[in-house]
Amino acid sequence: MKPLAKLCLAAALALPATTALADLHLGVILSQTGPGASLGIPARHTVDLWPREIAGQKLNITVLDDRSDPTVAATAARQLIEDRKVDIIIGPSITPTSLSALQAAGEAKTPIFTLAGGKSIVEPLEGARTWAFKMPPDEAIPVKLILQHMQKNGQKRLATVAVANSYGQVFVDVMRAMAPEFGVEIVGAESFNPTDTSFVAQALKLLAARPDAIFIAAVGTPGAMPHVELVQRGFKGQIYQTQAIANNDFLRIGGKALDGALFPVSPLLVAEQLPDGNPVKAAAVDYVQRYENAHGPGSRSLFGAMAWDAMAFVEHAVPQALAKAQPGTSAFREALRDAIEQTQELVVSQGVYSLSPTNHNGADERSQVMVRIHGGGWQYAGE
User: Fold this and answer.
1) In principle, which of 7, 95, 147, 264 could form an S-S bond with 182, CB 3.0–4.6 Å?
2) Same domain, 231 and 374
């Protein structure tokens, strides 16, 4: 066995021995270490809350750490498919690793439900992507909320900051395409790497452009660094982020400099603050209670909830697939993929989803609300 595969094996976290004779085989790939760890760790905790059987079939679950590395993610996917004979993969956590893993899954005709947000995971929906699904909504939905907020508040000049990978680039591309419709001009654009320790040069350039607002597209704790630098350099305008920063580590690292920031995010983050008429409130509160009962008050994570919701799709689809084939077969994997893409109006903790053979995400505007960072916490700011 190759050294890298051995490393993945060493990182595997299997469920208790009671599931060893399970009929359904499910693989999980998460960023439990590396820059994406603040996303992968709560998802790993959520795996412990998953059911232990579906439709009378026991689950055999193997969890691998991809270390936030696309190469490791691809190896992990192949290991799960070839060695564990999984029926479906949930994960990875971030877009670059998801793009690598889905190639391996697609080639093996194994459905993969990623927890990452990049539109490129499911578009164009051809080749390997026909076996891939993703939980977070398409970038156009949160971008629209941001632009609507800018329009309402008379903000016309926007600068962008993007992490230098596919996640950041897609958000910037979507923002550039949609901004003119709302009377917003892009006046500056900078990027950074997740491992960078300074944003001084980029911050000075952005401030010189005199934007009314700055939009940061980053994942996890690295998104705090440019935000803090801009505030410390005297930026007084509105800073927008994306939901990929919504974890307590981000709040801890950014501190008071984050106060006033706005970002579109899953309703789950402020579940109890939602109006009673919000269609996902009950499901969101249910997950929050389960997670916080296990990990303490305030420990909720939308990245953990993505893993919870991905399992909801599996639970919904497995009975339909079992009617056509047995787990462990190519026919079952195909039936499972088909059942997932036929899901309609499935209410989960982060939205309401309707998929199709041409839409492997299915989230609509009910998947996002605007949230403000205030006093080291999350504050519902409207839909």
Assistant:
1) 147
2) yes
Beta bridge partners of 132: 112
Q: Are 151 and 171 found together in one domain?
A: yes
pTM of the model: 0.81
| Beta-bridge partners for 346 | 353
Report the C-alpha gap between 149 and 62 in whole angstroms: 43
Scored b (16 or more CB within 10 A) or e, 78-92 reads: bbbbeebebbbbbbb
In this structure, are 232 and 374 located in the same domain? yes
Task: Say if 319 falls within a structural domain.
Answer: yes
Contacts of 354 (CB under 8 A, 6+ apart): 343, 344, 345, 346, 362, 364
Q: Helix 200-208 vs helix 224-232: angle between axes, to the nearest 10 degrees?
A: 60
The residue type found at 144 is K
Does 287 reside within a domain?
Answer: no
What does the alpha-carbon distance between residue 120 and residue 139 come to, in Å, rounded to a whole number? 10
Instruction: Report how far apart, in Å, the C-alpha atoms of 254 and of each of 119, 154, 259, 266, 376 are.
Output: 27, 27, 9, 21, 9
Domain that residue 222 falls in? 140-266+368-380
Assigned token pair, 52: 């232990």
**C-alpha to C-alpha distance for 228 and 239, rounded to whole angstroms:** 10
Judgement on whether residues 237 and 374 belong to the same structural domain of the protein: yes
